[in-house]
Amino acid sequence: MSAIHKKTLEDLEFPAVLAQIADGCITDLGKEGVYSIVPFNSLSTCEISLLKTAEMQASFNSDNRIPNHGFDAITKELHLLSIENSTVEISGFRRINSICKAVKDIQKFLSKYQEFYEQLSNMANYVPHDSKISKEIEAVVDIHGQVKDTASPLLQEIRIDLKRVKSKIGGSFTHALKQALTSDYLDEIKETIVDGKHVLAVKAMHRRKVKGRVLGSSKTGIIVYIQPQATLDYANELNNLMYDEDEEIKVILNDLTELMRPYAETLEAQQSFLVQMDILYAKAKYSNQIDAVVPRRNKTKKLLLKDAYHPLLLVANKARREKTIPQDISLQPDSRIIVISGPNAGGKSITLKTVGLLQLMFQSGIPIPAEPESELCFFDKILTDIGDNQSIENHLSTYSYRLKKMNQFLKRCNENSLFLIDEFGTGSDPELGGALAEIFLEVFYEREAFGIITTHYANLKLLAGELPHAVNANMQFDNHSLEPLYTLFMGEAGSSYTFEVAQKNGIPYGLINRAKKKISSGKIRFDKTIASMQKERSKLRMTTEALKSEEQKAREEGQLLEETQAKVQDKLERYQELYDSQQRLIQLGRKLDTIALNYENNNGKKQLIDDILKIVAVENSKRTPKKKAPRKEEKAKVHEQKQEVEKEIAVIRRKKKKAKKQASQKEAEKPRVPLQIGNRVRLLDGKAIGTIDKIEKEKAFVNYGIFTTKVHVSKLELVP
After folding, report:
1. Residue 20: per-residue pLDDT
2. What class is the 671-718 domain?
3. Angle subtended by helix axes 14-22 and 311-320, to nearest 10
4. For the chain, which residues make up each domain, given as ranges?
5. Which residues of 561-586 are buried (b: 16+ CB within 10 A; e: fewer)?
6. What is the pLDDT of residues 1-44, one digit of tens each?
């Protein structure tokens, strides 16, 4: 039995979640099982149930899907098996056999894929199975739900006699029909069925001429329905055989029931297994519906919810096609109590209920709608005080009821408890009720309990700010539109925006001012201070986000600039190498040109060869490695060369830019000739000439023979 009180389950709307899960069951017993789900008493059992559900959920999208677990309940049959001398009907044996086969198929499948379905396979291994059950039933009952002829020698003999007599009944009736037709005793309809018996439709005037039993007449009395005498004799024999058949079937079913009695516990275990499979199936189906996951489990007291949704709100908003805002919330030893404040209808209660409901789902083995990185621990007790709890039947006021609840909290609250209190301290005089609530909160804190409360009381906000292991939080509120943002912000208390919300809802400004005068200026200043702190924190958060974005952008631009500089440096070095190589080749060419000129003037071969050999010797000497220049001098030389190349590149760029500008000015001065289909054209900065095939919306399709391209007409010029 769960240690969590039924009222807590109701406060957190756990039964409503179970109702949504139950819709996914395919059996009535499965639905009953879902409605009976309560939180487990230990983390280990909770973990196993979660893993089973996760395995079932994984099978939905797998090629190796778990076989069908559907079945018809055998509760009635199990009850009969427990009663001495009772007999199970044929339909009951069919249901029993169906359950045995379903369990066998699932066990066989899970055994084959044990590595994928470890927890489900372990569960299936504990289910007893005996092939004799199906064997005995199938020896008696056929696939159509009828007792087989071979169920007993006597039944087989009776069935043979039945076939023989039925055949004679048919033959005798056909003979009587032919005789009556020949004698013209029959009406136009000739024959019909009365009370399940085949009869002749005899004209009333001839009824004494046809032997047999009269079974009735038509409304007008013109026709009399007669069962022929020969058929009647065989029908009596048939009735006797059918009675014998029924009696023998009773004996057979009674014997089969006696064979099944020892297997009653096995059958009950098998049905229970299929019920559990149906419950897991419904859980997995619901998990898919709300995008639920199995969170991380830890044995230390830590609750961390990331992008967590209230499942009921999520399902409702999906149906309305509305967005649901997720919440991030954390309870840890250094921040084990959270005091949530803020305006009404801002989402405080739904946030508190989200934490409580997801914790209940987790401890009941149901995946939760949150991010997989979420972490949950196990609480022995979950205590709640939510909503208007006025107890009419016990004549208790809201405040009296809440005090009674607080007394229960004081008795049960410890370091393994999670308490959730909505509108803490309300129901009495604000000053006195707030003071008492403050004391309760101090006691919960001293006992190292974990919990969340929502409040408007300033003293509770101040207390949360003073206690080392408690923290304030507020529901975000748009200061301009005065609309709730439904987002929890940790670290600071929230303003109730009492007068602002009142003004937004049409309360006259004069009345609001009169109300302000009745309140001490300190309280107004305190609420204003909280509101202004929220505004400043909101601005600071926006500024921080903007700065982070700018920082990231600057970092990316800096990285891009470094890469560009590296590329430019590489190009400069390659340009320098190319320049040096070209200069050397030019000098070599000049020398050869001079030698060739001397040879032409003097026609001296020997001199020509000597000069060429000298050049070759000089060039070869340059290729031999020389002693490296000092590092500083080398760097200085490279730096000078780099500066010279950069200057030359800058000059070339300026010239190109100037030439391009002049070309564009000249182009602009040229009168534009409208282009037509068939014109020969080329791109303004290109040389290839093509022909315009068609023009659509200032775009020309130019055919270059090998290919066709689409170009804006402004980028083309006419070729005469």
Report:
1. 96
2. mainly beta
3. 60
4. 6-144+259-292, 150-253, 303-498, 549-622+630-662, 671-718
5. eeeeeeeeeeebeebeeeeeeeeeee
6. 567 889 999 999 999 999 999 999 999 999 999 999 999 999 99
Contacts for 426-435: CB closer than 8 Å, 24+ residues apart: 426/398, 426/399, 426/402, 426/456, 427/397, 427/398, 427/399, 427/402, 428/399, 430/457, 433/399, 434/458, 434/459, 434/460, 435/459
Residue among 408, 411, 405, 419 nearest 339 (CA): 419
Token couple for 264: 């009653």
Q: CA–CA separation, 174 vs 167, rounded Å?
A: 11
Measure Cα distances from 487 to 354, 461, 535, 547, 642 in Å: 13, 18, 15, 22, 59
Same fold for the domain at 150-253 and the one at 671-718?
Answer: no
CATH C-level class of 303-498: alpha beta
Nearest by Cα to 80 from 91, 68, 70: 91
> In CATH, what number does 6-144+259-292 get?
1.10.1420.10
Residues 6+ apart with CB under 8 A from 699: 710, 711, 712, 713
CATH class of 150-253: mainly alpha
Percent of the chain with pLDDT over 90: 38
With beta carbons less than 8 A apart as the criterion, state whether 158 and 241 touch. Answer: yes
Task: Residue 164: count other Cβ atoms within 10 Å of its Cβ.
Answer: 14
